[in-house]
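Entry for the shared binder. Reason: the reviewer on the internal report wants the predicted structure included alongside the sequence.
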Amino acid sequence: MLTLKVITENTDEVIRRLAKKHVDAREIIAQVIDLDKTRKSTQQQLDANLAELNRISKSIGQLMKEGRKEEATDARNQVGEMKEASRRLEETKVGVEKQIHDLLIQLPNMPHDSVPEGKGAEQNVCEKEGGVIPELGDDALPHWDLAKKYDIIDFELGVKITGAGFPVYKGFGSRLQRALINFFLDNAREAGYLEVQPPYVVNADSGYGTGNLPDKEGQMYYAPADDLYLIPTAEIPVTNIYRDVILDKKDLPICNTAYSACFRREAGSYGKDVRGLNRLHQFDKVEIVRIDTPEHSYESLQEMVDYVQTLLEKLELPWRILRLCGGDISFTSALTFDFEVYSAAQKRWLEVSSVSNFESFQANRLKCRYRDEHKKIQLCHTLNGSALALPRILASLLENNQTPEGIRIPAALVPYTGFDMIR
């Protein structure tokens, strides 16, 4: 959530930057500024009223000592009236503050100045690419056919048990999943990330803290009997570890990694782009999260991008990095880099990671703060990235490494799988 201070002190800049996300914030910001004036005026009246109330209350005892009972009675009556006036002013102030809050949560995060102009994915900018796109024969199979051929993923069985988007992994497929999870976690630990194992369900406060609620409420599975949400990403519980926490600057950046199952309703998803593993309702992912200072967060972002690149290089996958444009960046992000890998049998790029800096947007909601060297309390910056999401990585590994003898396992994964071919 954008802070009231930023909006009131940098109004034109906020409007300009939000326009890059194709959001016309002028009306909401004008309402916020008017309400803030009312809030300040009400607070001034309340402060003056309370000061006068204290003065009169202190005078009552002195009046009684001097035998001026009638004046003391008048003072008591005046105190009663002023207490009622203070109560009404406090109610007004609380109501105005709620109106301001309800308006502020409608505003997305401001994009960083380096975010390109653009309305959609076609305007994203390719920053970097690497790896070799394999040349497969005309008989190359997409991963859903390979899964059936080698009996490693059963999509139909998942439909029977739960529904579409809930595949059942079997044999080599299960072992490959587990190998990828351990591979990603071990690499993250070696890169300095502390592994945590978070809950897979969160309360509404946690969803609000990371900006998933109310913005993405329709995409989350909800358990109404307990008022809990299934997580769409480990970002939510891991980042919320630091909700309502004041950290010491010397301890930053904090680096966490976590594996979790992820659950997404993906309402409205359909067509060939969601076939097989391309888009699931339940999938596995290893997440990296950083809590940092404002002056260091963009250095952290670059370190995270570089780290994800090393994972794709070790997996021998062709990859590219996209800087998302204003029309494609998320509600909460200030700057996002997407990683895509090339799926040789489908002949298309598949997104496998988003690495983002949210600056203080999430931290303001979370009240995630740090104490600087001058003992001043400041808002942290939060960052996160997929490192990595398994389904499309698995799809690309299967498709890109198919041979007449079977599916080859990249050398870096063999110590984790215990096999070098799926036959």
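Summary line for the report: The first helix runs from residue 4 to 9.
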